User: Fold this.
Amino acid sequence: ALLISATGTGKTYASAFAMRELEFKRVLFLVHRNQIAKQAKASFERVFGSRIKTGLVSGIKHDYEADFVFATVQTLSKNDTLKHLKEVESDFLKEINKTYDVIISNPPYIKTEDLSTLQEEVKREPMLALDGGKDGLDIYRKIAEEAPKYLVKGGMLIMEVGIGEAAEVVKLFRYAEYAIIMKDFAGIDRFVKIVI
Assistant:
């Protein structure tokens, strides 16, 4: 099983493609709004077709037995929902003490100097989730240093990257078995897949 905590079309499709490639059988996709959960569910269905059974866990729907469950943080914080899950809260990876087959991340990648030019709806997000430092790569450096501790041999790390950052991010993972840069639907280098 795998837990994905993400929002945005890019991360959703990156997650779906990774889950298809790795042939995961059970996935919990966690977001902050029910509308996003429904959209993510539809995106996964486009990628997988009829090969998986998807379900929602929301105020009125409780499809816990689906192969791929899409839910909101608010719904999962309810006592009757929590009994179905094991929760781990951590700042970055500090509280994690095991290894994983896959880690999917959307770290902050916007250059500090570009923050003032963002669309108004993006500016409502916490700056911590947006500011990638002077060159946009601060958190990628930290991930490159820490990821091997949390991935099994042959494990995969998939990250969303900013425009023009993919090649620089790959360079941070010199120890990788291999790296692949993947494009989004607009043809932009948007994801980096690292295998260690």
